[in-house]
Amino acid sequence: MADHNFLESDWDYILVLDACRYDVFSEVYEDYLEGDLEKRTSIGSSTPEWASKTFTGEHDLAYFSGNPFINDLGIPLNELKWGASSGYEWTATEHISNIIDVWQSGWDDDLETVPPDSLNEAFYANQDAVEAAERTVIHYMQPHAPYLSRGTGQKLKQIQKGIKRQGAQQSQSEDEDGVLSSVVGTVRPKVESVLDDSEFAQKMGLWLELGPRAVMKDGTRGAAMNLYEENLRIAMESVVDLVEDLDGDVVVTADHGEAFGEEGVWEHHIETHIPALVEVPWLEVEGVK
Prior knowledge:
Elements: E1 2-3, E2 13-17, H1 22-28, E3 33-41, H2 47-54, E4 59-65, E5 96-101, H3 102-105, H4 116-125, H5 127-132, E6 135-140, H6 155-171, H7 187-194, H8 199-210, H9 212-243, E7 250-253, E8 259-260, E9 266-267, H10 275-278, E10 279-288
Parallel strand pairs: 1-3, 2-6, 2-7, 4-5, 4-6
Antiparallel strand pairs: 3-10, 7-10, 8-9
């Protein structure tokens, strides 16, 4: 199995599906796209780890980011006040020439995430950035939770708020009503901190995304995988729409995978290099179904 080689490979456009594991992608992609699919090994098991190890030099990219960890605010990862990023001093703006913060402009308050259509809309609205850059990255948040069919999310919402709060502190303009509340004060980080990131803590965090009815009906793993595949399929619909308009070499891949109980791990965590988290798809697109 080849290493990811994200920047060293040949492509004009690369579409990143956040937290997309190889095995699930391999089962569904032929419903949407044609091309040569490989299994590759990611350099990280979470976005902060992957980004900090991938973008180490200066790169001429138009980066459409649905993931708030990769932002144009100039804030180092270790200042974002979220556990997954606390150990990394990497700053996206020091390595990527042009980042379009779709996580901010395309945020959906009802879904509490960045829907895939927002990435497509931002791409079409910023063609000057695409034309000016050597290559283009479109980083979708799905199949990463929150699960769109549930219409609500927790984890990404808190990361987004935490980043907004950090930016507000830098500009001395934090909202008085406390809307941009600290991540430290939310339910999920408290649960995971108290329980010291145990498997039970990870599952409790995931239950916030799944909802009790789904867990009672299908169990944690079954409920999560069902919603995860659905999220992937929703994202693939937007991927197909975009690919049809791209002129050049197109790759669909992921930054890392997602765990559903393998080796006692749920979701994804830094430096947890198990197959479920580092085996990612690398699809060189040849056409649309």
